[in-house]
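Note to self: the last two entries modelled the partners one at a time, which told us nothing about the interface. This time every component goes in together.
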Amino acid sequence: MDFLTLLQVLDSTVRLATPLLLACLAGLYSERAGVFDIGLEGKMLAAAFLSAGVAYVTGSVWLGLFAGIAASVALSAIHGLASITFRGNQLISGVAINFLAAGLTVLIAQNWFKQGGRTPSLIGGGRWENITLPFAETLSGVPVLGPIYAELISGHSLLVYVAFAMVPLTWWILFRTRFGLRLRAVGEAPEAVDTAGVSVVGLRFAAVGICGILCGIAGSYLATGLQAGFVKDMTAGRGFIALAALIFAKWRPWYALGACLLFGLLQAVALRYQNIDLGGVVIPVQVMDALPYILTVVILAGFVGKAIPPRAGGEPYVKER
Amino acid sequence: MTIMTKFLGATAALALSAGAALADPALIYDLGGKFDKSFNEAAYNGAQRWAEETGGTYKDIEMQSEAQREQALRRFAEAGFSPVITAGFAFADPINNVAADYPDTKFVNIDGWLPEVPENVLLINFQEHQGSYLVGMLAAMESKSNTVGFIGGMDIPLIRHFACGYAQGAKAVNPDITVISNMTGTTPAAWNDPVKGTELAKAQIGQGADVIYAAAGGTGIGVLQTAADEGIKSIGVDSNQNHMHPGSVLTSMLKRVDNAVFEAMSGGADLETGTFMTLGLAEDGVGYAVDENNAELISDDMIAAVEDAKAKIISGDLEVVSYYANDSCPALEF
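The predicted structure of the combined assembly is written out below.
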């Protein structure tokens, strides 16, 4: 593998990891606050659809982004209402949201655009432009570091940089602010938070809301950044891979970055090399596709460190009387 | 109570007789969805053409999951529809299971294969390798980098069949050409993952491909988009996809699923069943698309070469090896 190929694979890794990373951080906020969310997939899908639809109609990718976030937050609100306010089962609510999004997006798209559950192809201002960072052209002549800067770091859409900036921001919010401390506490011991006079319901809704915003950005990136339009089921299981990454990362922001980049790299390698020949042993492409899940199971089983979920995760909070 | 029972009985009898008298055709699309701009949409177009020309009506339904196939077949058969036309190879086994239960209903399947065809079943196959051979020639003539790409959807023999014909066509023009072949995945989700299509196309462009043939349903939309963005040529599949990115889509490998559906619906009760029907270049079942969107991309020399090969394939002077013949391809390794 020469240097240029390596760069291309890493470039592909960044693109593939971005939606995973956004969704993974979304899940992190929600689950750290004690609300399990397997509806990441559905929220991304709804956001992908509405952002593409609005971006097509208005010709503005920014309006599309906001519409996508709105769609995702609306689904988050349903999840919050069902599992926080009415103390329903969080997993069932999440599954319902996935089904709701899969059906509704195609139905509305068909009614709106009459193209069989797709949006028309976006052109011009309806898509995210790739940003060329300053000096990318001039520096590309510098050996090794130049191409890395010009090819790998520069030339992605704005949302990619947003996603990567979210990692330190999330770390700072969760571990360096009062809000973050309370948010983590509400996932570990909500009764303690309640005793301190802080609203458990309010904190959990805030976490679920942030989750919605991040999923919205992830969906918009899929439909208006990576692609030029919405196609039914276009998330193709990325919400579930993000969940796997979240467990793999043991619910920590920096680990989440590593896990998503690793899973993105596995996908990129699988796409680039269908069958990998390792000195006589051929690894079929299916192994690469399955590796994220296999790794997650290994982590869950406790072979490599132990993944301990937030203690109050999955439990609706009932005030003692 | 008795009045109620009689009333219900009468309604049921009415419904039954109405169903039998109508015998409208029904059409079932595969998981890709009705408007996939490709295979299923071609089936829909054929049905629409039949409805417009004859004034007849038909019912159609899209599959949402694997489990619905047999259920949908039974419901159409019980409602008295005939022929029940199904698009997609995956319907062959469900049809085999239900056909015997509804001897008066005719079932038609496009792309499927069964070792023994039941009496009331017609299986329609296309010689995709012949059409792919022609677009492979066009790709090789267009390529300046001596590298052409193929992106398939789900890794199944049918898609390898496409890839194999394509590679043979490309190598017929230029024996030294490199053909890069990738499959999107091994599950039905591979038909609807344009993001992976984009990444595969970018990876192939990185390896030097400047013409990419996408036989991947909805995933192909991402491939064609990326080809247009990166300024290389792409080749569409099944339906005519030239209009999607004029100037970038070199041509489309046409698979006249619309003709097959049209013929099956026109046949109605007289449709000959219990057999295979194979549509190739000779029957205009497959071909390549030239229209106002790509007329400037394809020179007269290219057309002359392809038409020459087409005539030879029809006359039997040139044989395109089928992947099915011995589950391997002389021009491409998978």
